[in-house]
Amino acid sequence: MNLTLKVWRQNGPADGGRMVTYKVEDVSPDMSFLEMLDVLNERLTLEGDDPVAFDHDCREGICGMCGMVINGVAHGEQRATTTCQLHMRHFEDGATITIEPWRAAPFPVVKDLVVDRGSFDRIIQAGGFISVPAGSAPDAHSMPVKKEDADDAFDAATCIGCGACVAACPNGSASLFTAAKITHLGLLPQGQPERDSRVVAMVEQMDLEGFGGCTNTGECTAVCPKGIPLDAIAQMNADYLKAAR
Amino acid sequence: MATKAVTPRPAPARAAPARRGGFLRTSNGKKAVMAVTGAVLVLFLVAHMLGNLKVFAGAEGFNSYAAWLRTVGEPAVPGRTLLTLAEIGLLAAVGLHMWAAVSLARRAARARPVKYAARRRSRADGYVVRTMRYGGVIIALFVVWHLLDLTFGTVNPGGAAATPYERVVQGFAPARWWVTSFYLVAMAMVGLHLRHGLWSAFQTLGLARGRRRRALNVLAAAFSAVLVLGFVSVPLAVMIGVVK
Fold first, then answer.
1. Please, are residues A5 and A97 in contact by the beta-carbon 8 Å criterion?
2. Residue range A69-97: average pLDDT?
């Protein structure tokens, strides 16, 4: 496959940045999107150019490091897929592909397609944990949890914190990310003692970081590689109203 | 072998009491204001739409309904008391709804200072959602015209002296097709606004979850359609001469 890429290049946080066009030839349809970028980067390196910086780690869809907006869609058109698990067979030969970093004020660009997602860490630090004396793992049946709650908590816990929800949201809201952690911990017995303080602190931190508000557009859940449902945001809203009363 | 001293973690702080105005400063607080004031306005729209249908009962029925709105509660309370209270409540709801909308829209604009080069494509049901902000502005402008037209009679051919029924019939006369068209466009906007706004309010208040969300979504669509049909039936009936 031969492709034309329009890639966002930005030397550093202070640089204005621009879209740069590259031709990539002999791309195998079996390559992942990141492998296709590797091909481009090897060529750029050989030519003495600066390779395109992008975040990646596990390349098997579970770490949450990779992510870019491909043709205007976070992680690309393929649903429930991280960028590393997106394969080139989903693109047409000769296609032009636009590649941009997550765009949000709380996600400042570090270089090219790499953004600083420290704001997510600070939201978690604000309350996305449980304070328990950690000993050996308790017996699985020592604290019964309703099957539905266990399932919903687990679904929410699959969030990998990639930031696609923020990138896709027309308001740049981090509601789905924050709500996933609140739902995960709030549905389990261990999360109850801090349930109220957690939601208040995390929502406040989310606002402090400069994320937008949720307008229930559903764009976040549509691009989420883990399919975190909007129910999580409803749970966060309910918990917040209860705690802030 | 030294054992590591176990320092007990401090007891988790209870939810800090909301700072003065703290709730209204958070995005979640503003969303709640938006949802509750929106619900008030929806209830008003239902009553308004049902009241409008009185026009099909003829001039007398419609005019006496209008008069009743001003005398309801008498003699327990002076005339127009309940109507005035309702007007104050509606004005407050509209004001707070718009304040929350503007505030959240500005926050959203600040959250994405650099736009995407590729057109960001909607992956969800994006069309209705995109009409919310500009649709709201159109609806606000419409309300101003609507009050000048049928409440104060300033821009109505019948003028302030005409009875409510006369104002409706003369206001939507076929010669004033452009007024009727504006009403129809505005009502379509109201329908789209409620299509998203209704279930969105339930979501914001944390009431839409799981199977209930799907039911609410269908309900929001059906409710908006019925409400809009009820509203547009009056100007259309006048235009085609069913009501004269």
1. yes
2. 97
Examine the predicted complex and report whether its ipTM is higher than 0.85: yes
Q: Which residue has the tokens 């009553």?
A: B47
Q: Is the minimum CB–CB distance between A203 and chain B shorter than 8 Å?
A: yes
Closest CA to A212 of A147, A166, A244, A177: A166
pLDDT band at residue A32 using 50, 70 and 90 as cut-offs = very high
**Encoded tokens for A58:** 């596990």
Selected from 2.60.40.10, 3.30.70.380, 1.10.1060.10, 2.60.40.1180, the CATH number assigned to the domain covering A117-131+143-244 reads 1.10.1060.10
> Residues A149, A187: contact at Cβ < 8 Å?
yes
Residue A167's nearest CA partner among A5, A8, A15, A6 is A8
Long-range contacts, stretch A15-20, CB < 8 angstroms, 24+ apart = A17/A109, A19/A98, A19/B117
CATH number of B28-110+127-239: 1.20.1300.10
Phi, psi of A189 (to 5 degrees): -60, -35
Q: What angle (nearest 5°) sits at the alpha carbon of residue B110, between those of residues B104 and B116?
A: 110
CATH architecture of the domain formed by A3-100: Roll (3.10)
A158 vs A151, A181, B22, CA distance in Å? 11, 9, 32
According to the model, what pLDDT value does residue B3 have? 47
Query: Is B203 at the interface with chain A, CB within 8 A?
Result: yes
CA A93 to chain centre: 28
A25 burial (CB, 10 Å; 0-12 / 13-18 / 19+) is exposed
Compute the distance between CA of residue A6 and CA of residue A23 in angstroms, rounded to an integer.
9
Cα separation, A172 vs A213, whole angstroms: 8
The 10s digit of each residue's pLDDT in B187-206 is 999 999 999 999 999 999 99
Look at B116 and A172 and tell me if their CB atoms are within 8 Å.
Answer: no
- Yes or no, beta carbons of B15 and A196 under 8 Å apart: yes
